[in-house]
Amino acid sequence: MASKVCGKCCAPKHALPASRSKLKRSLFVEAMAGGIVLILAVLGIVPHPLKVGDQIDLATQQRMQQREEQLRQEMIRLQQEFDKMTQELQSGLFLKNMLLAMWEVWPFGALPGALVLLFELFWMATEVDFDESESSSDESSSSSEEEEEAPVNEWDVGRFLMQQMQVPVLHLAKRCKVVEALVGDLLHACHLITLNTPLLRLEQCIGVGSAFEGWSSHWDTVYSLLVPLKPPTGHCFHLELGAGGELPARHGRVRVELECVCLRQQLLGDVRCFLHRPEAELGRNQGPCLLQYLCSHSYLDVEKTACWFQLTAMNAWLLLPASHRCRLTVLPSSRSCKLRLEKVSGRSLSIEILFGVQQGDSRVFLTSQQARAGLPSSTTWLESCAVPEMLFFRFVARQAPQDSCHLTCLNLFARLLEGTGFSTYCLKTVLMHLLTVIPLSRWHRGHLLERVDGILQYLQRCLEDKQLHHFLLGNERVPREVPLPVAFQTASPLNLFQRLAQEPDAHAQALRDFRRLQVRLRSLL
């Protein structure tokens, strides 16, 4: 039997025989259950202790009986959770460490200790075991290979492709939920650390990119999340969008200005008005920190913001329970926060946190995303449509049949495009157009080959016409559930194939890449 490794000391320990290990685990679970009964009992007694000489009247006795019944029901629920978790745990060492951590918190009160324990249990219950996910995906792949020898018709090929790609997508959805919850906890810890500093306010994160759209099935996927930024009290943002840029790739800057909060200072006294009180009265280290530390010439600096968040995130991570069993590494990045999360088992996750400032009530942001051609300065932000595109795919997921094949089509073409001049964004744009033209009821997996052929035909027509319009600009078919700025709604269509119309050599190469794509698809089917 393979040796087991303790998450804290990393010292190998040989596993006990199955019977002894099972017996010790059951005894430990019973001990934990008894400890929780003690915790709940203390929680029930401490708030209302009986004094010497107090008499228990009928009403008090009834409350005690009700409390006893509540504790009994809670005990049953916790016992069921323990039974479920013990089947998934590979070692009981983490539970012991968790109990010791709770015992260290105990002197501060029974309630904090119980909350720490329940939070740890909740985290364990919701954590995805990436090793098991990969093994189940491998088993699904092997079973699909056995079915490949069956007679091939439209339905069989559709079922084969769905089985090949549906399992990774399901595990991808689970991972996205775990990553989004983890980053949410990290942002909450960052908020606690910076609570008394007049710096940026971090809003709830938004999952963006292919992973959160549901069509990226590679295990080395980078999970991208956008964190909206809000100014602190006494400050405001003014967006200055570049007039020379072309939608939706305009550059912009975020100007930071001071606001008068004298009235709030007089009524509540929880803020200082930086605008009407000189810095000398506020103290040398209590000036407008946002303008001093995160801005350059009154404009919000992307690189300073990224550096500040990276330092804050490293300290906030130590406050999370996940830090006891996972190692967080902050990777070098000047315009974002790139994280690598590693488990003791060796599995890892790559996360990139981007920052953005929202444009009005729309879901278009000026983000810290790096442009392909580079940006002129650290105070320049890039306009991004990542959130509206994610909202569109969520809208389609709610309206489409349960076994819709539109994500399967994207996964299929994402793999076939490797080595060609076509980008996945190009095929995603084609798919988004077709999803608003072809009724969603006709995206059933039984129509998979028909939909794949439709995507190829649409792409071929775009290449022949040298014209592929951006999906969100001047398109009346965009659902109302995807809020866009007025400038996007009234804009003229943007041709993503403009380069093909201007450069004959690029157009000829695109036609050769398309023929290669056709050959690859025919060989697969």
TrEMBL record:
It comes from Apteryx mantelli. Gene3D superfamilies: 1.10.1410.40. The keyword Transit peptide does not apply. Belongs to the ITPRIP family. Residues 61-88 form a coiled coil. Residues 422-472 form the Mab-21-like HhH/H2TH-like domain. This is Inositol 1,4,5-trisphosphate receptor-interacting protein-like 1. Pfam families: Mab-21_C (PF20266). The keyword Ribonucleoprotein does not apply. It is a single-pass type I membrane protein. It is found in: Membrane. Its main location: membrane. Residues 133-152 are annotated as: Disordered. The chain crosses the membrane at residues 27-46. Keywords: Coiled coil, Membrane, Signal, Transmembrane, Transmembrane helix.
